[in-house]
Design brief:
CATH topology of the largest domain: Glutamine Phosphoribosylpyrophosphate, subunit 1, domain 1
Structural class: alpha+beta
Order of helices and strands: EEEEEHHEEEEHHEHEHHHHHH
Distance between the termini: 66 Å
Strand order of the largest sheet: 8-9-2-3-10-11
Number of strands: 11
Amino acid sequence: MLPGPGRPVHTYSIVARDPETGELGVAVQSHWFSVGALVPWAEAGVGAVATQSFVNPAFGPDGLRLLRDKVAAPEALQKLLSTDPGAAVRQVALIDSRGRAAAHTGERCIQQAGHHVGKGYSVQANMMLSDAVVPAMAQAFEASQGDELALRLLAALDAAQAAGGDIRGQQSAALLVVSGKPTGQTWKDRLVDLRVEDHPSPLVELRRLYGIHRAYEYMNAGDAALEQGDERTAMAKYARASELDPGNAEIVFWNAFTLATNGYLDAAVPLFQRAFEADANWVELLQRLPDAQLTDDATVAKILESTGQGGVSERRD
């Protein structure tokens, strides 16, 4: 019988810190439903934790609390394990805001199981097909220096899977990245928070979701540039967003709307036409926006006329 709390989330994961930005992150994959709900924990300016094997979920918040109190990751790890009667079946890794990492693989974790602590990161795995998984993760992470942290974390996961991965296969994955310095607004500090709850190829799906995430970041950056009157930068950001997610009519429509309502109707027209061709409901939505005070009837009328939609339908009051 297992001592203490536990669920068998056998998996591979990585915790890491970007030395340039201070960003902290966790990435994980497992043949277990919704692994992102249990394994990854991170707080801006504090640290990151991955708790797995016969997982003790309390290691997440308790580990962050210790790191928040300026306890170094190796000491925080020992404090967590000292109060857990199930330490022999736990696997856990922590990294603090200074990049100090520490990990534990209990002697009763299901083989193949192990970890490697490197400079500014730790990789760990259990119930793997072979003992090549952990070294492959470490090599991939170190070889990706210069890339943004999220991509480096994804590279480590891909390397784990290529080396054999979980002996049971794949099911779910998660990617969590927080900023190096807290703003006091947790929703801003959480830079990436993506989960694949159940999928036959969760790492492929996680990368797809990250691409969409990046597309929306470029879209927001385009809006910010346009607010500053930098049309050239805005158009470049919008174009990059569309490249990252070319079939996303949502991105196309709102980019067009932002351009049109900031005096760039000519640039907006072809984008509106793409959105309207994808789904006529975007025409109807456009006509509803004056009611939400996002624009006015005159602007909508100009857009409809310029895109050949004039007289398609009357806006309902």
